[in-house]
Amino acid sequence: MSLRLGDKVPNFQAKTSIGDIDFYEYLGDSWGILFSHPADYTPVCTTELGKTALLKEEFAKRNVKVLALSVDPVEKHLGWIGDINETQNCSVDFPIIADDDRKVSELYDFIHPNASATATVRSLVVIGPDKLVKLIITYPASTGRNFNEVLRVVDSLQLTANYSVATPANWTGGEDVIVVPAVSTEDAIKKFPKGVKIVKPYLRYTPQPNVD
């Protein structure tokens, strides 16, 4: 199965480092991030999981639940978590899925034969409360993910889901956003009381609407 933007993500049941879960039940009405790792006890993954644990409060502020996945059993995950906590000065308390049968990896297209016939690459899926795919990022196994970018795109996704705006290149929270083309300039002026800056008829900026 190949997931695309806008697809409904498949549900699954799995063993994890915090116990058995049903994916949909675990997410509830939260946003979700599911990201894969080639194997336990690998150096880049160790830093990624540590960084995720250190960003716990940032994810919580955004109503995001994070789940990692690795094609190893729970017992191995638990030993690895000890190493992660020790070396990255953190406390991993989010679930790491035990996908030793590769069921979830295949459901979510995390195994890429051009990279490896068995191990997952570094794929990351952002899932909305509606269980639809909002973002897919795939890195090669040798490149660690940029979690500041992950937080940035979650901010953009949550903002643009609630307002008729898009975010420009390199946008970060608090900066001006773009009025979407579907909104006329006349309507935009009414809709965005902070003001609308018209650069071109199709390029119109307004201050981020959900920031005081």
How do you describe this structure in short?
The chain is of the alpha+beta class and 212 residues long. The chain is 31% helix and 24% strand.
List keywords for this structure.
7 helices, five-stranded mixed sheet, four-stranded antiparallel sheet, 2 domains, alpha+beta, Antioxidant, Horf6, Chain A, domain 2, elongated, 212 residues
Q: Averaging pLDDT over every residue, what do you get?
A: 93
Supply Rg: 19 Å
Distance between the termini: 43 Å
How many E strands? 11
Please give the share of residues in helix.
25-40%
In the CATH scheme, the class of the largest domain would be Alpha Beta
Label the overall shape: elongated
Share of β-strand residues: 15-25%
Describe the protein in words.
It is a single chain. This protein has helices at 23-27, 43-54, 56-61, 74-88, 103-107, 147-162, 185-191; strands at 13-16, 19-22, 31-37, 64-70, 96-98, 122-127, 133-139, 165-166, 177-179, 197-200, 203-206. With 212 residues, the chain is an alpha+beta fold. It folds into two domains: 13-144, Glutaredoxin (3-Layer(aba) Sandwich); 163-206, 2-Layer Sandwich (Antioxidant, Horf6, Chain A, domain 2). A five-stranded mixed β-sheet has the order 5-4-3-6-7.
